[in-house]
Write a structure and sequence with these properties.
- 72% of the residues lie in helices and 0% in strands.
- The longest helix has 21 residues.
- It is mainly alpha-helical and 110 residues long.
- The termini are far apart.
Protein backbone atom coordinates (compact mmCIF):
# COMPACT_ATOMS: atom_id res chain seq x y z
CA UNK A 1 0.00 0.00 0.00
CA UNK A 2 1.25 3.48 -0.87
CA UNK A 3 2.23 5.83 1.89
CA UNK A 4 0.04 8.67 0.65
CA UNK A 5 0.73 10.90 3.65
CA UNK A 6 4.52 10.91 3.28
CA UNK A 7 4.44 11.12 -0.51
CA UNK A 8 2.04 14.07 -0.32
CA UNK A 9 4.28 15.87 2.18
CA UNK A 10 7.41 15.10 0.18
CA UNK A 11 5.98 16.62 -3.01
CA UNK A 12 4.54 19.66 -1.23
CA UNK A 13 7.82 20.50 0.48
CA UNK A 14 9.50 20.76 -2.92
CA UNK A 15 7.11 23.51 -3.97
CA UNK A 16 8.45 27.04 -4.02
CA UNK A 17 7.90 29.67 -1.39
CA UNK A 18 8.21 33.40 -2.07
CA UNK A 19 12.01 33.48 -1.94
CA UNK A 20 12.55 30.36 -4.06
CA UNK A 21 11.43 31.63 -7.45
CA UNK A 22 14.83 33.17 -8.26
CA UNK A 23 16.57 29.79 -7.95
CA UNK A 24 16.22 27.82 -11.21
CA UNK A 25 16.89 24.48 -9.49
CA UNK A 26 14.13 25.07 -6.96
CA UNK A 27 11.71 26.10 -9.71
CA UNK A 28 12.54 22.95 -11.66
CA UNK A 29 12.02 20.82 -8.55
CA UNK A 30 8.75 22.68 -7.92
CA UNK A 31 7.46 21.86 -11.40
CA UNK A 32 8.40 18.19 -11.12
CA UNK A 33 6.85 17.93 -7.66
CA UNK A 34 3.66 19.66 -8.81
CA UNK A 35 3.17 17.12 -11.59
CA UNK A 36 3.80 14.23 -9.21
CA UNK A 37 1.43 15.77 -6.66
CA UNK A 38 -1.34 16.06 -9.27
CA UNK A 39 -0.99 12.38 -10.07
CA UNK A 40 -0.97 11.46 -6.39
CA UNK A 41 -4.07 13.58 -5.75
CA UNK A 42 -5.88 11.82 -8.61
CA UNK A 43 -5.09 8.48 -6.96
CA UNK A 44 -6.25 9.78 -3.59
CA UNK A 45 -9.60 10.73 -5.09
CA UNK A 46 -10.14 7.06 -5.92
CA UNK A 47 -9.76 5.89 -2.30
CA UNK A 48 -11.13 6.99 1.06
CA UNK A 49 -8.58 9.70 1.87
CA UNK A 50 -10.50 11.41 4.65
CA UNK A 51 -8.19 10.32 7.48
CA UNK A 52 -5.04 11.13 5.51
CA UNK A 53 -6.32 14.56 4.51
CA UNK A 54 -7.36 15.34 8.07
CA UNK A 55 -3.79 14.71 9.20
CA UNK A 56 -2.38 16.73 6.29
CA UNK A 57 -4.55 19.72 7.21
CA UNK A 58 -2.74 19.73 10.57
CA UNK A 59 0.77 19.61 9.11
CA UNK A 60 3.23 22.29 10.23
CA UNK A 61 4.04 23.49 6.70
CA UNK A 62 1.59 25.80 4.92
CA UNK A 63 2.35 24.28 1.49
CA UNK A 64 1.10 20.92 2.73
CA UNK A 65 -1.99 22.43 4.33
CA UNK A 66 -2.89 24.45 1.22
CA UNK A 67 -2.61 21.44 -1.07
CA UNK A 68 -4.57 19.26 1.35
CA UNK A 69 -7.28 21.89 1.72
CA UNK A 70 -7.52 22.26 -2.04
CA UNK A 71 -7.97 18.51 -2.47
CA UNK A 72 -10.57 18.44 0.31
CA UNK A 73 -12.54 21.15 -1.46
CA UNK A 74 -12.30 19.30 -4.79
CA UNK A 75 -13.51 16.08 -3.16
CA UNK A 76 -16.17 17.86 -1.05
CA UNK A 77 -14.85 16.34 2.19
CA UNK A 78 -13.70 18.04 5.39
CA UNK A 79 -14.85 21.32 3.82
CA UNK A 80 -15.26 23.30 7.07
CA UNK A 81 -11.88 22.14 8.36
CA UNK A 82 -10.25 22.98 5.00
CA UNK A 83 -11.76 26.49 4.93
CA UNK A 84 -10.71 27.11 8.53
CA UNK A 85 -7.17 25.97 7.71
CA UNK A 86 -7.00 28.28 4.69
CA UNK A 87 -8.32 31.23 6.69
CA UNK A 88 -5.66 30.65 9.36
CA UNK A 89 -2.94 30.65 6.73
CA UNK A 90 -4.36 33.85 5.23
CA UNK A 91 -4.39 35.49 8.66
CA UNK A 92 -0.95 34.41 9.88
CA UNK A 93 1.36 33.52 6.97
CA UNK A 94 4.27 35.84 6.21
CA UNK A 95 4.62 34.39 2.69
CA UNK A 96 2.77 36.43 0.07
CA UNK A 97 2.63 33.51 -2.37
CA UNK A 98 0.92 31.34 0.24
CA UNK A 99 -1.62 34.05 1.03
CA UNK A 100 -2.34 34.56 -2.68
CA UNK A 101 -2.93 30.84 -3.18
CA UNK A 102 -5.26 30.82 -0.19
CA UNK A 103 -7.20 33.86 -1.43
CA UNK A 104 -7.70 32.21 -4.81
CA UNK A 105 -8.97 28.99 -3.23
CA UNK A 106 -11.30 30.81 -0.87
CA UNK A 107 -12.61 32.99 -3.69
CA UNK A 108 -13.57 29.88 -5.66
CA UNK A 109 -15.75 28.52 -2.87
CA UNK A 110 -17.58 31.73 -1.99
Amino acid sequence: MKDYYNLFVQHCLQQCTKGDYTDKQKVKANNTASKALQQLQAEMQEIDSTEILSKLLSHEDDRVKINAASLCLQMHILVEEAVRTLQNIDDFSNDATMRLSVKMLLQNIC
